[in-house]
Design a protein that fits this description.
Number of strands: 17
Largest sheet: 6 strands, antiparallel
Shape: globular
CATH superfamily of the largest domain: Transferase(Phosphotransferase) domain 1
Helix content: 40-55%
CATH class of the largest domain: Mainly Alpha
Distance between the termini: 86 Å
CATH topology of the largest domain: Transferase(Phosphotransferase), domain 1
Structural class: alpha+beta
Radius of gyration: 32 Å
């Protein structure tokens, strides 16, 4: 092509190339300026689809007018050759810069902000780069960053050559440069703006450290690392990197797109905040009116600054144990540990049939260390996210907010069990304590008590006399009963449709083998309580609640301070007995005994809701979610209380965030309530019953012709007469009749719910769905019969 002319562009020299084509410097002979001309690769010339997409991308890019994006001037075809004429940037790329080593943070920040600004502009036009890397980021002569080659890598259909030096992966459905590709790209999943945010994080990591976060020359190892491994924290490679910049980079590099910055604009905002703080820190705090005094006393000031610097260095690096002495700790002591998580134990037997036993070890140890009063223990649901392949301990700490973790393994061999546990601090990662226990399986509960007491000693805290007694008095277990109990607990830890039935059977078997097994009775009572919440068809909620009382009474007879049993009893007092003072006492006591169980905060928050203390209630559920930050259940409770507070947008954001983290969750009712509260009635119907759906279609027709009340009436009537074997849910039917403005029908179904002691009847005072009937005398009378305070 050198020397040839395409249209009015004379090709001068080749300046780059890739799977999509070749880039030349050319002379625009009409406007007498240099331009970059990208020619579609020869093997794509006959691909009509590729040519069409090439043209579409050119049109999209031509709409983006931003100083940090390479401008597109022209798109044309001549002699069967499709080409793109673009702004020519005479300068270096960031790939040239990185070859010289890492950059200073003061140099990185301006480039990072320009990169984020350019990406945000492109994303607003619906264009995602998909191949962001240093060689596609040019620096103009005046130092301005320019993003090149937008949206072209995804068009390639050519397979790359084999070899360890392979850098560009371009296969059907996957396109990009592997070390910069986000996990969803490697899986050929859907890509969006967050995919570019990930690549931007790789670029920033490389600028800050001089290396990529994942750079194995072996392609299978490289892709596995991108999918599963955590990057080395940048500060380990360059200690001078600020925590703020490191936090920005690591958030960009999250495996889960939902945990990254959700847009380039969000990334830009954080970078600007960091730059503003850095700039303000650099400003001298001395008043401008004192320069003469400062000059006169410069030697004294310099000496004082030197002493301060030496003192700060001694403290930062704990020279001569100075930091330990100032903090009251002996020299060399571990840093304070205020929060902890128990990672899923490893099953050393490799026998899948023993997984339930090992999972039980994790749960029992979590319960034991929760007895340490000064320690915030992250809930098991969050820590179970790290079963199997897991990120580094610093990364786990960042995701969950813990200061340390317990790692462990278990091996069951007949009547012997070997448990190994170690305590590892997260920041910086360091081993603090470990021990192995080889005992008879009957003594397994005593092992957990010993581990908890050892950790309390390690973090230099005192157990309360009550906690010491609970941990020390662990009784021997019946091996068969304990196995059955652990099988039931394993089911409860991963609930699914119908899964509570085998849990019920397992707990009954445990009780049959050991009639004094308090925890088994408590767990059976919990299962019966769940049945009543789920509205099992064969028994009313009132009858289901009655079944709870037998095993619950036996559990508390055997162990009056068993936290789970007290929580079940308090829940029973609250939702079915409507005995507010007793419910408060039981639920508070359960939280005192196990303050690290996030789910225990839910019934206490509902007690506050009954008392009309809505803001306190919301704070309590948020506290519970903070203890189990990755648990769908605790976060779902937060969404529900945001709905009670009429914070529609916040509730919807919470639901969307949860759905992105766990697509299997069915959160349609939460989202529908938020949308209805916002007045988005069609959105509500589409969320609950997306087309094609006969009921949803009928409701949509009613909405179009008569309005939201008519649509609600269609749904209410359908829910009131479901097809067998389904049975009506009175509260649900009452909600839709209330939305329909049919007070008589709404009150009829609320009376049915009242007669059954439907557990969520307690929410009607705060539930916005009942606003249309709130002033109805019958509704007011119902609130009084339930016993709500005025």
């Amino acid at each position: 092509m050198i020397g040839e002319t395409l249209s009015h562009y004379r090709i001068i020299e080749r300046v780059g190339g890739g799977g999509m084509g070749v880039v030349y410097r050319a002379r625009d002979e009409r406007l007498d300026r240099d331009v970059a001309v990208k020619v579609l690769a020869a093997d794509l010339l006959s691909d009509k689809a590729a040519g069409t997409r090439f043209r579409q991308e050119a049109r999209a890019l031509s709409r983006i007018n931003h100083p940090n994006i390479c401008a597109v001037y022209d798109f044309d075809s001549e002699r069967g050759v499709s080409f793109l004429a673009m702004e020519y940037i005479a300068g270096r790329t960031l790939a040239d810069v990185v070859r010289s080593g890492p950059m200073a943070e003061t140099e990185i920040l301006p480039l990072a902000m320009q990169l984020a600004e350019g990406l945000a502009a492109a994303h607003r036009e619906g264009v995602v780069h998909r191949d962001l890397k240093p060689s596609n980021l040019a620096l103009s002569a005046d130092g301005r960053l320019k993003i090149l080659d937008f949206g072209l890598a995804k068009l390639s259909q050519t397979a790359p050559p084999d070899g360890a030096t392979l850098s560009v992966l371009e296969t059907k459905g996957i396109a990009g440069t592997v070390p910069y590709m986000a996990p969803e790209q490697l899986r050929a999943g859907a890509v969006d703006a967050r995919t570019d945010v990930y690549a931007a994080g790789v670029v920033l990591y490389e600028l800050a450290t001089g290396r990529r976060p994942f750079d194995d020359p072996n392609m299978p190892a490289l892709t596995d690392a991108i999918l599963h491994a955590a990057p080395i924290p940048p500060v380990r490679l360059r200690p001078e990197i600020s925590p703020a910049l490191e936090g920005v980079i690591l958030r960009c590099l999250e495996k889960d797109p939902a945990l990254r910055y959700q847009s380039a604009g969000d990334l830009l905002a954080d970078l600007k905040r960091h730059q503003a703080k850095s700039s303000s820190a650099a400003v001298s705090p001395l008043p401008a009116s004192r320069p003469r005094l400062l000059r006169a006393r410069r030697p004294i000031v310099a000496f004082a600054i030197l002493l301060l610097a030496l003192a700060a260095g001694a403290f930062a690096f704990n020279l001569f144990g100075v930091r330990d002495r100032l903090s009251g700790r002996p020299p060399g002591a571990a840093q304070p540990i205020e929060s902890l998580g128990v990672l899923p134990f490893e099953n050393l037997s490799r026998d899948a049939s023993q997984d339930y036993f090992v999972a039980g070890m994790t749960e029992a140890l979590t319960a034991a260390v929760s007895q340490i009063p000064t320690l915030r223990v992250i809930g098991r649901a969050s820590m179970m996210r790290f079963a199997g392949a897991r990120p580094s301990i610093p990364e786990i700490a960042r995701l969950t907010g813990v200061d340390a973790v317990i790692e462990g393994s278990a091996l069951r061999d007949g009547n012997r069990v070997r448990i190994t546990a170690q305590l590892v601090a997260a920041r910086p990662e360091r081993h603090l304590w470990s021990n192995s226990y080889d005992r008879d399986v009957r003594d397994v509960l005593a092992i957990h008590g010993e581990v908890a007491q050892a950790i309390a000693r390690e973090i230099r805290t005192k157990l309360s006399p009550e906690a010491q007694m609970r941990l020390a008095r662990a009784r021997p277990v019946n091996p068969g009963a304990y196995e059955a109990y652990l099988r039931g607990r394993a089911v409860l830890a991963n609930p699914s449709a119908g899964s509570f039935v085998p849990a019920e059977a397992a707990f009954k078997q445990a009780i049959a083998l050991d009639a004094n097994f308090a925890e088994a009775y408590s767990s059976l009572a919990y299962v019966y309580m769940v049945y009543s919440f789920l509205g099992e068809a064969r028994l009313s909620p009132r009858d289901q609640a009655s079944r709870v009382r037998g095993p619950l009474a036996r559990a508390l007879e055997l162990d009056p301070s068993l936290p789970e049993a007290l929580a079940v009893e308090g829940t029973l007092n609250l939702y079915w007995d409507w005995d507010w003072p007793t419910a408060e006492r039981r639920l508070k006591r359960a939280l005192e005994l196990n303050p690290s169980e996030g789910l225990l905060y839910h019934p206490y928050a509902d007690y506050l809701l009954v008392m009309g203390r809505l803001e306190e209630s919301l704070e309590v559920v948020k506290r519970g979610a903070a203890l189990d930050p990755l648990s769908p259940l605790t976060n779902g409770v937060v969404a529900g209380h945001l709905l009670f507070a009429r914070r529609w947008d916040e509730a919807l954001d919470q639901v969307r965030r949860m759905s992105a983290q766990n697509p299997r969750l069915d959160l349609r009712n939460f989202a529908a309530d938020a949308l209805w509260g916002k007045g988005d009635y069609r959105g509500t119907l589409d969320e609950l019953m997306p087309p094609p759906n006969p009921l949803g279609d009928a409701a949509r027709r009613a909405l179009s012709s008569e309005g939201p009340r008519a649509a609600a009436r269609v749904i209410a009537r359908a829910f009131a007469s479901p097809a067998p074997p389904a049975v009506p849910r009175p509260l649900q039917v009452a909600e839709w009749y209330s939305r329909a403005g049919d007070a008589d029908s709404a009150m009829k179904w609320l009376e049915i719910a009242y007669g059954n002691r439907a557990p969520f009847l307690l929410h009607i005072k705060a539930n916005a769905t009942f606003d249309p009937v709130r002033d109805d005398p019958r509704f007011v009378a119902l609130l009084k019969r339930i016993g709500f305070p005025d």
